[in-house]
């Protein structure tokens, strides 16, 4: 475990996890390792590589242990594993991930469909996982799913999300991630949730997860960037979605977000052309068109 201090605004590559979990094609372990290696070679330094969920429910995420065992390990690269419960954490620790990302859902109906429990049990699971993670010296993120709106319950009041953040902050997460799981959010919501997070968890690092379902993902990401240093999730090629959320399309694309950040003065360390090449490659593996735009237009100035 490297447990790097993640300073400044930076991009977290979630393509190998969120980018693949809703695709029809389930990739082999070797293909997943190749994908992640291409991301590392292009400059990605935090990568959500695997998900320790039940492969019967999400077959695209099968082989997490095998993927972790085959990945190139470097002191400057952190591999994140997504976990939903104590069994997932047990698997993640055994697989020697560098960080764990624990999901707490903000609505009961989505929580039941996604995790088989209500919000209160999700919070209790988080508390138990946080204690075990801390004992293991593990960098731990807690992600609040459907923070901007739920496909089943509708609007998600900011104060509800902020109250959940306050309760989770008591267990000392290293990072709080605020997720627009279905791509309904707008910048005004980003500002409200940011203000609330700074009020109830002022010393906890912030991470944001946006989908571009309604073409607001990049506006939301740049709003978050303007509000202060943060981590921004993105997926190579703009692939992604949630198996339990109807019509949830892809994450914001790594190469498109990287272009916007670099043009805004952020030294991301990411090679945009290499990311675009990786997007073309993974699109071919998935037999799916690449949603991202940067690879079509190229950099500016050229």
Automatic annotation (TrEMBL):
Gene Ontology MF, one: lyase activity
InterPro entries on file: Aldolase_TIM (IPR013785), HMGL (IPR043594), PYR_CT (IPR000891)
Similarity comment: Belongs to the HMG-CoA lyase family.
Entry annotated with the keyword Lyase: yes
Keywords: Lyase, Metal-binding
Domain Pyruvate carboxyltransferase: 9-276
UniProt entry tagged with the keyword Lyase: yes
TM segment ranges: none
This protein's name: Hydroxymethylglutaryl-CoA lyase
């Amino acid at each position: 475990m490297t447990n790097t201090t993640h300073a400044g605004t930076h991009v977290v590559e979630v393509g190998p996890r969120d980018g693949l979990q809703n695709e029809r094609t389930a990739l082999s372990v070797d293909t997943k390792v190749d994908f992640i290696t291409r991301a590392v070679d292009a400059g990605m330094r935090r990568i959500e590589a695997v998900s320790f969920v039940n492969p019967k429910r999400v077959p695209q995420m099968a082989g997490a242990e095998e993927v972790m065992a085959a990945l190139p390990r470097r002191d400057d690269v952190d591999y994140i594993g997504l976990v939903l419960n104590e069994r997932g954490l047990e698997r993640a620790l055994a697989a020697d991930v560098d960080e764990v990302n624990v999901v707490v859902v903000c609505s009961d109906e989505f929580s039941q469909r996604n995790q088989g429990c209500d919000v209160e049990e999700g919070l209790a699971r988080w508390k138990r996982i946080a204690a075990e993670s801390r004992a293991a010296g593990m960098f731990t993120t807690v992600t609040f799913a459907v923070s901007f709106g739920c496909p089943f319950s509708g609007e998600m009041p900011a104060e509800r999300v902020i109250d959940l953040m306050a309760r989770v902050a008591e267990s000392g997460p290293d990072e709080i991630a605020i997720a627009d799981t279905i791509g309904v959010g707008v910048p005004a919501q980003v500002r409200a949730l940011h203000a609330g997070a700074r009020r109830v968890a002022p010393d906890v690092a912030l991470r944001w997860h946006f989908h571009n379902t309604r073409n607001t993902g990049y506006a939301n990401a740049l709003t978050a960037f303007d509000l202060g240093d943060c981590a921004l999730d993105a997926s190579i090629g703009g692939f992604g979605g949630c198996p339990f959320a109807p019509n949830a399309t892809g994450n914001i694309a790594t190469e498109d977000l990287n272009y916007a950040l670099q043009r805004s003065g952020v030294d991301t360390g990411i090679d945009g052309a290499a990311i675009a090449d990786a997007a073309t490659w993974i699109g071919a593996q998935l037999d799916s068109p690449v949603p991202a735009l940067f690879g079509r237009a190229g950099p500016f100035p050229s």
